[in-house]
TrEMBL record, chain A:
The gene is accD. Pathway: Lipid metabolism; malonyl-CoA biosynthesis; malonyl-CoA from acetyl-CoA: step 1/1. It is found in: Cytoplasm. Its EC number is 2.1.3.15. InterPro entries: AcCoA_carboxyl_beta, Acetyl_CoA_COase_Trfase_b_su, ClpP/crotonase-like_dom_sf, COA_CT_N. Pfam families: Carboxyl_trans. HAMAP family: AcetylCoA_CT_beta. This is Acetyl-coenzyme A carboxylase carboxyl transferase subunit beta. One of its GO terms (molecular function) is carboxyl- or carbamoyltransferase activity. One of its GO terms (biological process) is malonyl-CoA biosynthetic process. It catalyses: N(6)-carboxybiotinyl-L-lysyl-[protein] + acetyl-CoA = N(6)-biotinyl-L-lysyl-[protein] + malonyl-CoA. The keyword Nucleotide-binding applies.
Length: 279, 407
């Protein structure tokens, strides 16, 4: 005999009457443990049980890196135009509007300046939730202006990449953002201002092939997917399964394209230590 | 030592061996090995140059007697300076769907001309009429091409590739190899060339003409070592203060396992940054396909030009279709949406100019296409040379920094 038995038969609750627990209060880690969001937040969004680095956005990174979460945002209102009148299954402006509504962001990158452990820094951080963190004109321009700010104020520049690559809906314009950001970084380099590129999960395509790989220091979070071509494309091209750990941060470090991998909980202090040594 | 070469030519004297060859559709030649001491070469059909023949003659290391069955031959010895294993190969004629009506009329015209020669019937009027008809049809077809048709033309199997252009426009060319780290990427070629007496560095992606070549050239998809080789050559040009010309023709950087291991993204990124700061004039020309980062990786230039029937964008229409429409069948729509032709790109100020192709596309008259490319590129280099280094670099950076559309 069962311990619990439903006494009233035929109870149906319509969907709209179902009560829900507040969304995002609990987080299930990859190992299967359920933890409270507060605990996750206090741990820099790293699962305490298995050190899994949860995908987070610019809001969270700013919170982690800027002292007391105090910063001044640059070009917060810059928005995408639709230079090509691009339409696939949806019109591009509609897609942008839908993403803006869903994510409460204006585009896939935010720039801010403030203090990190008492030292000035400019941080540019991408948001994967906004059309896959794709790079269009706004992303390129905001990064370029962020670098300009660093150039003007002579403060270090930190770029946090998290993107699927260039944004198709701006075609040629997106492609040229690779050139634009690289041009600005060349100037930053000439001015001998340090540039740290932090690659997070995932960083692929045109972003890897431009600013993300051009740091004086290229660093990454553990377990991030980092590559030029996506794994599916490579699998289709070579017709073979990819080895385990292919294109992970550890793999990229092993092949010599990263300086080190950093745990998010130590990110702020490690960056400060490093910058103190060089600048 | 020689008895009578004419005797050999007329077949009266036995030659110890005879090699008969034919290639490029330009040249038939017979080489006779006379008593192991002298090579006699009989060439039919006029030609400008022929690397393979030159190589044969040099290798034979014997006195050479040239025999011309037609008198208009000029074996340009300067082409001996063409220090590359490359030999132009012509494909069997292939036609795109929209080229077919023109080809049909052209074969009709050829038939008619033959008829006129053979019989006494006067068909001059008919021939003239047909000729005008062909020209009008060609004009109609090639001025109203859809974006997808231009993509098809950019991939035409007979379209001139980088080394074809180099072969046509340069007096001398010394191909250089290797990235000094891993290997020599055959999909990326480059070297010093002399064009109208001026030394330049030419670099570009190279596609293959037949199956074997395509495999060797990896379909024009360079690996990281290709981009590093390109950068090495550019730095070399900078060191010796020579202008750089890059010819872009790639379906993309190679998306392979080893490419990732060796840092495809890093290689391209580095090129973008380093090319921004090159002290010498740089002119890039999209001569076929200009796909994404693989193309941009050698296309940071003071002047970026596109040939008329080429495309340049962030993704190929096929891949775009497969991602946004989740099917490969919307490539035409994708091509339209991407606005990837030379005209579109110029309109959006993402490139600096268009190089006209002969009516019928670059493949219909390779020499004319090459000579147009040469004169346009030289014109730009001449103008760029007048600027100071710093000014050129600043303009280059400003140009790319201004690209974008936002509000």
């Amino acid at each position: 005999m069962a311990w619990f038995k439903r006494q009233d038969k035929g109870i149906h609750t319509p969907t709209e009457k179902k009560k829900e627990a507040p969304d995002g209060l609990w987080y299930k880690t990859p190992s299967g443990n359920i933890i409270h969001m507060r605990e996750l937040k206090n741990n820099s969004y790293v699962c305490p049980d298995d050190d899994y680095h949860v995908r987070i956005g610019s809001k969270e990174y700013f919170e982690i890196l800027f002292d007391d979460n105090k910063f001044t945002e640059l070009d917060a209102d810059l928005m995408s135009a639709d230079p090509l009148k691009f339409t696939d299954s949806k019109k591009y402006p509609d897609r942008i509007a839908a993403s803006q509504k869903k994510t409460d962001l204006k585009d896939a990158v935010r720039t801010a300046y403030g203090k990190m452990n008492g030292k000035d820094i400019t941080i540019c951080c991408m948001d994967f939730s906004f059309i896959g963190g794709s790079m269009g004109s706004v992303v390129g321009e905001k990064i370029a202006r962020g670098i300009d700010h660093s150039l003007k104020k002579k403060v270090p520049f930190l770029m946090i990449s998290k993107s699927g690559g260039a944004r198709m809906m701006e075609a040629g314009f997106s492609l040229m953002q690779m050139a634009k950001t690289s041009a600005k970084l060349a100037q930053l380099s000439e001015a001998k201002i340090p540039y740290i590129s932090l690659l997070t999960d995932p960083t692929t395509g045109g972003v890897t092939a431009s600013f993300a790989m051009l740091g004086d220091f290229n660093i990454a979070e553990p377990g991030a997917l980092i590559g030029f071509a996506g794994p599916r494309v490579i699998r289709e091209t070579i017709g073979k399964d990819l080895p385990k750990g292919f294109q992970s941060s550890e793999f990229v470090l092993e092949h010599g394209f990263l300086d080190f991998i950093v745990d998010r909980r130590q990110l702020k202090n490690k960056l400060t230590t490093l910058l103190k040594m060089v600048y | 030592m020689m008895k009578a070469p004419f005797a050999v030519w007329t077949g009266l004297e036995p030659a110890t061996s005879c090699v008969t060859g034919r290639h490029s559709n330009q040249l038939n030649y017979h080489t006779f090995d006379l008593f192991g001491t002298l090579t006699l070469v009989c060439v039919r059909v006029s030609l400008n140059c022929d690397a393979k023949l030159c190589a044969y003659l040099i290798k034979s290391n014997r006195p050479i007697q040239l025999f011309l069955s037609t008198f208009s031959i000029s074996l340009k010895l300067s082409k001996r300076g063409f220090l590359s294993t490359f030999v132009p190969v012509k494909n069997q004629s292939m036609h795109l769907e929209f080229e077919k009506p023109i080809v049909e009329l052209e074969s009709k015209l050829a038939d008619m001309k033959q008829l006129a020669q053979q019989s006494d019937v006067d068909v001059t009027d008919a021939i003239k009429k047909l000729e005008t008809k062909i020209t009008t049809l060609k004009k109609d077809t090639f001025t109203n091409l859809t974006r997808w048709q231009r993509v098809q033309l950019s991939r035409h199997p007979e379209r001139p590739y980088t080394l074809d252009y180099i072969y046509e426009i340069s007096d001398d060319f010394v191909e250089l190899h290797g990235d000094r780290t891993v290997k020599d990427d055959k999909a990326m070629v480059g070297g010093f060339a002399t064009i109208d007496g001026e030394s330049v560095m030419i670099i570009g992606q190279q596609k293959g003409r037949n199956t074997k070549q395509r495999q060797e050239r990896n379909f024009g998809m360079a690996n990281p070592e290709g981009y590093r080789k390109a950068l090495r050559l550019m730095k070399l040009a900078e060191k010796f203060n020579k202008p750089i010309i890059t010819l872009v023709d790639t379906p993309g950087a190679y998306p392979g396992l080893e490419a990732e291991e060796r840092g495809q993204g890093e290689a391209i990124a580095r090129n973008l940054k380093e090319m921004m700061m090159l002290k010498v004039p740089v002119v890039s020309v999209i001569i076929g396909e200009g796909a994404s980062g693989g193309a941009l990786g050698i296309a940071i230039a003071d002047k970026v030009l596109m040939m008329e029937n080429t495309w340049y964008s962030v993704i190929s229409p096929e891949s775009c279709s497969s991602i946004l429409w989740r099917s490969w069948d919307y490539k035409e729509q994708a091509a339209e949406a991407l606005k990837l032709t030379a005209k579109d790109m110029l309109e959006h100020k993402l490139i600096d100019g268009i190089i006209n192709e002969p009516l019928g596309g670059a493949h219909s008259d390779m020499k004319a296409a090459a000579s147009q490319l040469k004169s346009d590129v030289l014109k730009h280099i001449k103008a760029l040379k007048k600027l100071s280094e710093d000014k050129r670099i600043q303009q280059r950076i400003d140009k790319f920094s201004d690209m974008g559309a936002y509000k």
